[in-house]
Write a structure and sequence with these properties.
Helix content: 55-70%
Number of helices: 3
Number of domains: 1
Shape: elongated
Strand content: under 5%
Number of strands: 0
Largest sheet: none
Distance between the termini: 12 Å
Order of helices and strands: HHH
Structural class: mainly alpha
C-alpha cells in the first residue's frame, strides 16, 4: 500500500468516526466536540492540497511505507 492510499483511508475513517461520535442522532453519540476533529481533518486535507505537506505522510514514510510514483 502506498502513502496516498493510506492517507485517503485514514482521513475518510477519521471523518466518518468523528461524525458518528459527534452527531446527536447517531447511536454512537458521545459529544458534539468530536465535530471539531472532523473540521481539523478537513483543514489538514485542505492545507496539504495547497502546500504539499502532510504530517501523516511524513510519519508513514519514516515507518517505511512507499510513496506513489
Amino acid at each position: 500500500m502506498t502513502t496516498d492510499r493510506a492517507i485517503r483511508i485514514m482521513a475518510g475513517s477519521f471523518v466518518l468516526i468523528s461524525l458518528a461520535l459527534g452527531i446527536v442522532e447517531s447511536p454512537f453519540f458521545v459529544s458534539r466536540h468530536f465535530l471539531w476533529f472532523t473540521a481539523f481533518v478537513g483543514a489538514n486535507l485542505l492545507q496539504s492540497g495547497f502546500t504539499g505537506f502532510c504530517p501523516a505522510e511524513s510519519i508513514m514514510l519514516k515507518l517505511g511505507m512507499k510513496r506513489l510514483g
